[in-house]
Amino acid sequence: MSFKILAPLLIACIFGEISEEDNVLILNDSNFEQLLAQQSQILVNFYSPWSQSCKSLIPEYSKAALALKQISPAIYIAKVDAAANPTLAEKYGITEYPTLKYISEEGSIKYTGDLTGDSITAWLIKRSQSQIQNYSTITELQSVLENTKVAVVLFATIKFPHHFEAASKLFDDAIFIICTDKDAFSYYGVEEWSIMMFKQYDDKATRYYGPMALNYLIKWIEENKRPWTWQYCSDASEFIFQKKHPALFFFRYEGEANTYNEIYEKLAKEYKSKLVFTHADLSLPAYKKLSVVLGVPKHAQPTFVIIDHDGNGINKYLYYKTVNEEDLRSFIKGWLNKEIEPYAKSEPIPDQLYAQGIRIIVAENFQQIVMDNKKDVLVQFYAPWSVACRNLAKDYEKLAATLIEIDELVIAKIDMYLNDVKGQFIQDFPTIKFFPAKNKKGVLFHGDANYENLLKFIQEYTSFKAEDKKPKLDL
Predict the structure, then answer these.
(1) Shortest CA distance to 250 belongs to which of 316, 305, 332?
(2) Do residues 287 and 251 make contact, with C-beta atoms less than 8 angstroms apart?
(3) How many helices (H) and strands (E) does the chain have?
(4) CA gap 434, 227 in Å, rounded
(5) What are phi and psi of 282, to 5 degrees?
(6) Secretion signal: which residues (predicted)?
(7) Cβ-Cβ contacts under 8 Å for 29 (sequence gap 6 or more)
(8) Less CB within 10 Å around the terminal CB: N or C of the chain?
(9) Rounded distance, CA 268 to CA 67, Å?
(10) Counting beta carbons within 10 angstroms of the beta carbon of residue 470, is it exposed (0 to 12), middle (13 to 18) or buried (19 or more)?
(11) Integer CA distances (angstroms), 173 to 161, 170, 222, 225, 378, in order
């Protein structure tokens, strides 16, 4: 019997009711845990059907799926429509599409390699093998450490704990080593089963004193491998916004950096266990936009912004006074002691509630309008300076005009330059979210924002289907 005929039978035997498409398992909120109970590791593509990047990935992902099924033991990969399964998307911190996550019983890690079948296949095969390097002499160890940015070393002469192997599979930016040389133990002042991290920056060597438990070790590695002061980048963004670590943002022009760096770096070292210290150059457009998103006043530079996370979203705390060590330390202490209030801005509720059929909302009435569980609400989060937002204007107005007779549907927009909305951290403009009456977590739109695509998007996710006996949405 050929593999082509046998493969579906094997899938049915192994995974029961979980279906597949082009060799990729199809997961959702209801069957995800079932798969994890049967598979010790899985790569999951969180995608949006509206994203062109997701569509481009389909043949490459299927190519990887086929190749991985044919090795022994087979490795299976899966996909989740994140827009249709918001619980999973939220659990794994999915904010952009496609996002590929390697998930195991130990935890999860974002795939950051090339989106090609060959690269995905090679990466997963490597993940299925031991990631640990073994050295029996201090000379070998030090030779490697001299040329390695981040290394986590277990000093052990007997069988090493399972959690060290497990942790090694969750980090792409550190190597994991076991050293068995007793001379190395003496040189570094450690005992059997001690763990140390060696870096090429900041504190060059750090020892782990936590319990021999995987979750504690992972947390320690995450917190100690990052620099004390971190230039804002995609890795910093994921660590702060997806993994929800409190952070202090330092916005300044690069030419001013030397004026404040001594204070900034001193406080970063002092409070490294409490805050991620990250800096951004306001002369670069992307960072300028980020400063707007975080509510930095236009003419207040340099500015420090602390953000933290609670169950309802992100809180922001601003400092844009004269920069000196004493006042900045007081600002940080005020945040730690919960003595300062978060900052939020809102336009007043407008006298004219609609413009060209579009409901104008502001931070003050966002909850009242968008979270109305009797209405489906489409919201465009926009910035007035965004060319893409201006280009969308006519199509968005046409959409509102087309659907204006449907009482159960609201087409709305909000200016994110002038409004901070709790629970909605928007970095790209325009961002379009649909909040159906039955799903107020919201569904994020991905793809080309135009009249036809937005109309189809509403039709797919509306709470009021055309066949309902209740209010009809006949598109």
Answers:
(1) 305
(2) yes
(3) 16, 22
(4) 38
(5) -70, -10
(6) 1-20
(7) 85, 87, 88
(8) N
(9) 46
(10) exposed
(11) 21, 9, 10, 9, 40
Q: Measured between alpha carbons, how far is 330 from 316 in angstroms, rounded to an integer? A: 16
The token pair that represents 336 in the structure block: 């730690």
Encoding tokens for residue 257?
């950096």
Tens of pLDDT, residue by residue over 418-454, are 898 887 878 788 999 999 998 898 888 887 899 999 9
* HSE value, Cβ hemisphere, 13 Å, CA-based, for 164: 25
Tokens at 162, concatenated: 């399972």
Instruction: Supply 398's token pair.
Output: 């046409």
Torsion angles phi and psi, residue 36, rounded to 5 = -60, -30
Nearest 5 degrees, angle CA 304-CA 309-CA 313? 110
CA angle 160, 162, 166 (to 5 degrees): 125
CB-CB neighbours of 414 under 10 Å: 25
Residue range 65-79, pLDDT digits in tens: 999 999 888 889 999
What does the block give as tokens for 66?
A: 């086929």
Contact between 23 and 7 under an 8 Å Cβ cutoff? The reply is: yes
The tokens of 41 are what? 């590791």
Please state, in angstroms and rounded to a whole number, the distance separating the CA atoms of residues 298 and 13.
61
Predicted confidence at residue 15, as pLDDT, reads: 52
**CA nearest neighbour of 297 among 364, 349, 343:** 343
